[in-house]
Amino acid sequence: KQEVTQIPAALSVPEGENLVLNCSFTDSAIYNLQWFRQDPGKGLTSLLLIQSSQREQTSGRLNASLDKSSGRSTLYIAASQPGDSATYLCAVRGSGGGADGLTFGKGTHLIIQP
Amino acid sequence: GAVVSQHPSWVICKSGTSVKIECRSLDFQATTMFWYRQFPKQSLMLMATSNEGSKATYEQGVEKDKFLINHASLTLSTLTVTSAHPEDSSFYICSARRDPTDNQPQHFGDGTRLSIL
Questions:
Q1: Over the stretch A42-96, which tens digit does the pLDDT of each residue have?
Q2: Which residue of chain A has the CA closest to B34?
Q3: In terms of CA atoms, which chain A residue is nearest residue B47?
Q4: In A1-114, at which residue ranges do the beta strands (DSSP E only) sit?
């Protein structure tokens, strides 16, 4: 059974810093990996999707990498801003079939101090 | 882009009440919809996979008679929490996928916060 772990569970940094969020998964047979943002009491906003054949994806100040063989992904946030404060979730989709749901980590709760 | 709409966003009701939550794909047809549940400070956990026109597939430990799922059309899936009790209080969220080969980012509804008194 796939398990997804995110480290750290919480992170508080001053505005302007670059930071890295980590995600690891136990079963490397994945279809893709997706990073989401969740604001308190809200739904999920998709940030980046990395296909199993890709190594990284970039969107603005965000860069996500994937090392499928070692079961790891990182989300790099450049020049952090207070508006980046949220919980960041990593989720993997298994390669076992088209109807696979996502397996989520518990998230990293990020606070960017003004 | 693809949009998933979920309704209602917040429900407060008495114990024993049945509650229906709707999940709609607004600009695409979804052969598969997924229902997740999130307890405070916990991760999202997949409850069931709903395929249009067929019975839902439930994850281990999820009572199918408690959580009734209907996916009668390609744009609508409903989750009914029957005879809800305080332990069913949680954040329920759905997502939709066009078809099994869809490799696009999966989009989610805004979720439904269910509070059972």
A1: 889 999 999 999 999 999 999 999 999 999 999 999 999 999 999 999 999 987 6
A2: A101
A3: A101
A4: 4-7, 10-14, 19-25, 30-38, 44-51, 56-59, 62-67, 72-77, 86-94, 102-104, 108-113
